[in-house]
Design brief:
Distance between the termini: 33 Å
CATH superfamily of the largest domain: Zn peptidases
Strand content: 25-35%
Number of helices: 10
CATH class of the largest domain: Alpha Beta
Order of helices and strands: HHEEEHEHEEEEEHHEEEHEEHEHEH
CATH topology of the largest domain: Aminopeptidase
Largest sheet: 8 strands, mixed
Structural class: alpha/beta
Strand order of the largest sheet: 1-2-4-3-5-16-6-15
Radius of gyration: 23 Å
């Protein structure tokens, strides 16, 4: 376990943002090489790596996923573990997730599965929602086709080491929406000679604010958060011609997300048409809802002991691109408590509790043993 702990500290001191995890991938590859995996794939869909232990031709394949990327948060204070990246830090605990997976790898290398195989996926770009899709789209991923998929995420606010589980949607779908209105500039002394997008921008912001009420009949959480807006420039002699609104749409199911996208895009188009403006609508940071399969939830619940088991009463509002895996293969995303007094995820003061590495790795190994045994619900 000391080597996995050392890896976590090395990763923590070299945080890298989504899609640029080159040193992170190198550190992981260097750690895994002496363990002699039965299959190693690097550069999957970018910087992701996968390592397989066991054989696929004599049983099921269980895939366990962790994340490579840090978040664009500056490290708070100075410590022996402080990261070298001035604008990046492991304040989501992905360094700890990788250490958990490293500990799992050490155990699998010492006692390889006699039936089936385990794939350990170190995935890039989770924070932007691009990593999972890129891995799955890589033609080499066909060599790793799983029968089961599992992942965990540390959860501040829950008792240290508690397993947080939920059937159905575990974390919400979300996507960033960018609406840009284009009018015609004018002298600020004669704004009536131009075509300002100011009214359309303000009305769209108000409509985003009313979205939750409009979708309250959906029977689920559904709302929009305006994260930014821009109108013109600081040029006091010119009436503006351009305006942008940035919003995050969030809900519990992919079906409701499709309706929200259609509704919001139609609102933007109507506002532009009414004021004679040009308009473009684009999307980024697209996350599907992560929906847990009941047999996978039963499996995690069955092997959770001796850890405390907590059933989450509602989906978590944050999003996870692991939903791209659970949409294709049965599996589950679950949480493991990081302590009730811990700072929140992405907070500059958050620190992954290293005492989670051993129990979380042991839990993952119990899940693997359960699935490779071929138990059927």
């Amino acid at each position: 376990m000391s080597s996995a702990l050392e890896l976590r500290r090395a990763l923590h001191s070299h945080p890298e943002l989504s899609g640029a995890e080159h040193d992170t991938a190198r550190l992981v590859a260097d750690f895994m090489a002496p363990l002699r995996p039965d299959l190693t794939l690097t550069g999957l869909g970018g910087t992701s790596l996968a390592f397989a232990f066991g054989a696929a031709n004599n049983g099921p394949t269980v895939l366990l996923r962790c994340e490579l990327d840090a978040v664009p948060v500056t490290e708070a204070g100075a410590s022996d573990l402080a990261g070298t990246g001035a604008s990046a830090a492991h304040r989501c605990g992905h360094d700890g997730h990788m250490a958990i997976m490293a500990a799992v790898a050490e155990s699998l290398a010492a006692a390889r599965p006699s039936r089936g195989r385990v794939v350990l996926l170190f995935q890039s770009a989770e924070e932007t929602g691009a990593g999972a899709q890129a891995v799955i789209a890589d033609q080499r991923f066909a060599q790793l086709r799983p029968d089961w998929v599992f992942a965990l995420h540390n959860l501040p606010g829950y008792p240290l080491g508690a397993v947080v589980l939920r059937s159905g949607t575990f974390s919400c779908a979300s996507r960033g929406m960018v609406v840009e209105f284009a009018g015609r500039p004018a002298h600020a002394a004669q704004p009536e000679t131009g075509l300002s997008p100011a009214a359309a921008m303000c009305q769209l912001i108000a409509r985003f604010g009313a979205l939750a009420a409009e979708f309250e009949g959906a029977g689920e959480l559904a709302f929009a958060t305006v994260v930014g807006a821009r109108l013109g420039e600081r040029a006091f002699g010119t009436a503006p011609a351009l305006a942008s609104v940035f919003a995050t749409l969030r809900c519990e199911t992919n079906e409701t997300m499709a309706r929200m996208v259609e509704h919001c895009a139609a609102s933007a188009l109507r506002l532009a048409r009414d004021d004679g403006l040009g308009v473009t609508v684009a999307y980024q940071d697209i996350f599907d809802a992560t929906r847990n399969a009941e047999p996978a939830v039963v499996c995690v619940g069955r092997v959770a002991a001796p850890l405390e088991l907590i059933v989450a009463p509602a989906p978590f509002r944050w999003s996870e691109d692991f939903g791209h895996f659970t949409a294709r293969w049965p599996g589950a995303l679950f949480g493991i408590g990081a302590g009730t007094g811990s700072a929140a995820l992405h907070d500059a003061g958050y620190e992954f509790p290293e005492e989670l590495i051993a129990p979380a790795a042991a839990l993952m190994l119990r899940i693997v043993a359960d699935r490779l045994a071929g138990d059927a619900e």
